[in-house]
């Protein structure tokens, strides 16, 4: 690493990953080596609900002792995915900040491909969009409807698949954003902030794999949250 601030901070959301966090960290380090990204930090986010029996916190704390480039946060949760993601972004010190899920549903090589794209200097933020999905027709249908509604309410945003990760932001782009979502709406809020600040967004296609180790964390309550927040944030934009 050069100095105290790395070129790339990679925030990995590890909630309830348990033993898979080890495998995913190995995959990530291999990807960074393959793409010749040697100035980086990994930030493993393993916040937990007290009394849940989740072993992920102790696992990521152990991982952080094996490599000085690996850092972790494992604290009692005060929110859901949005709170985890925002806490990881606050810890990131890199010139570029990437965030991805640590469940293996998207290829970790996407981070390397996106990092090459944002380093070209043409974009403030880069992300993937899912061209193939193996998570079932219900999720595909809901995602299509959600993205359609997003574009109806925010027609100025020329991007696809709002919830897709990885996403990589320049530090300048991140520091312009005012993120507040504690729940599943955080990805959409990032996109709304990008639109508000007229950011240049680059995209690459990706695949979305089936997750067999556990059931999805996305509930019907989360779907209602998505929809209600879309209208709330659309109304908010009139007063910004």
UniProtKB/TrEMBL annotation:
InterPro entries (alphabetical): Glyco_trans_2-like, Glycosyltransferase_2, Nucleotide-diphossugar_trans
Source species of the chain: marine metagenome
Name used for this protein in its record: Glycosyltransferase 2-like domain-containing protein
Domain Glycosyltransferase 2-like, chain residue ranges per copy: 9-151
PANTHER family: RFBJ PROTEIN, UNDECAPRENYL-PHOSPHATE 4-DEOXY-4-FORMAMIDO-L-ARABINOSE TRANSFERASE-RELATED
Signal sequence, start to end: none
Pfam entry (one): Glycos_transf_2
């Amino acid at each position: 690493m050069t100095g105290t601030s790395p070129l790339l901070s990679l925030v990995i959301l590890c909630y309830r990953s348990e033993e898979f966090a080890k495998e995913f960290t190995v995959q990530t380090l291999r990807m960074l080596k393959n793409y010749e990204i040697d100035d980086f930090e990994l930030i493993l986010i393993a916040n937990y609900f007290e009394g849940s029996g989740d072993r992920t916190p102790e696992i990521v704390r152990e991982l952080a002792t094996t490599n000085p480039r690996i850092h972790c946060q494992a604290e009692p949760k005060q929110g859901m995915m949005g709170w985890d993601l925002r806490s990881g972004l606050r810890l990131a010190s890199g010139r570029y900040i990437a965030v991805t899920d640590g469940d293996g549903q998207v290829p970790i090589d996407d981070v390397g491909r996106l990092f090459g794209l944002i380093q070209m200097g043409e974009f403030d933020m880069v992300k993937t969009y899912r061209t193939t999905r193996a998570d079932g027709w219900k999720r595909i249908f809901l995602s299509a409807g959600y993205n359609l509604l997003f574009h109806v309410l925010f027609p100025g945003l020329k991007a696809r698949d709002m919830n897709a990760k990885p996403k990589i932001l320049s530090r300048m782009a991140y520091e312009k954003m005012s993120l507040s979502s504690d729940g599943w709406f955080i990805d959409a809020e990032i996109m709304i902030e990008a639109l508000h600040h007229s950011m240049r967004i680059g995209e690459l296609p990706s695949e979305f794999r089936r997750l067999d180790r556990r059931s999805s964390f996305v509930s019907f309550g989360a779907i209602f949250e998505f929809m209600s927040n879309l209208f709330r944030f659309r109304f908010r934009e009139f007063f910004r």
